[in-house]
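Record 1 of the preview.
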Amino acid sequence: MAGTMHAVLTDLIQLLVLERIEDNIFRGESRDIGSAQVFGGQVLGQALSAAHRTVEGRVAHSLHAYFLRRGDMEAPIIYEVDRARDGGSFSMRRVVAIQHGRPIFNLAASFQTLEEGLEHQAEMPDVKGPDGLQDVTDMAADKLAMIPEKMRRFLTDKRPFEFRPLQSINFSRPEKLPPVKQVWIRAVDRLPDDLALHQALLAYVSDYELLGTSVLPHALVFGRGRIQMASLDHVLWFHRACRVDEWLLYSFDSPNASGARGFARGQFFKRDGTLVASTAQEGLVRVLDENRGKTKSSDPRLQV
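->
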């Protein structure tokens, strides 16, 4: 199947299939997708993949991660897995991602033997389906001309996922909007029936769009203007099995921004309304003084 799969998706899968160096040590490479450093979703997906390689007969149900340092796209990333616990039903793994002798990322992931239990879930937002919506890479040429080059590349480069947003954002003249948005996502080609792979890919794509929700009420767009944004932590809960090569609605909201940090939450729904995963993230959101390149603040002691 890999031989006929879309090239960018095949490349992403190869990134997630890490090289095993020792029983609990793996090595991964990086790809430049137009971000200032290694894309956080890539490290999330690779770290979860490394943890999965040390677990048998159980599936991931949650991960909690911290981004410690910028990742260097030119250097390999070493993933060290600590087999913290294997209990009767649950297994816990701790993963440290290392570059140049220093940790850049920590992850704790929990795995569970499948079992039945109580069932309830939140309702999916009542929004239009993906059919007929425009992919984010199909923006009109006249709009692209007004977008900074780095942002233009991020929006238009071929990706392993389709993104069909429900709400359009004016990148050249952003407006103040409610901190809520939805986007339909789907891998660009059919994938193998491997739940661990689908979970790693869901972790990868869960880092797209999320933190940007926290700046919508402030008429700001990442990649345009003097704004500094970086993920600080990331949490993902897998509620039910899903396939990322079928349409999923990623629904976001941001209940808070304060202290130069933005907080955002997300939920993944199947087209039939089934809630399959939830996520949350806090990140640095720093607005810089356009004249001096310093953080805007009424208290000069807080400027950096």
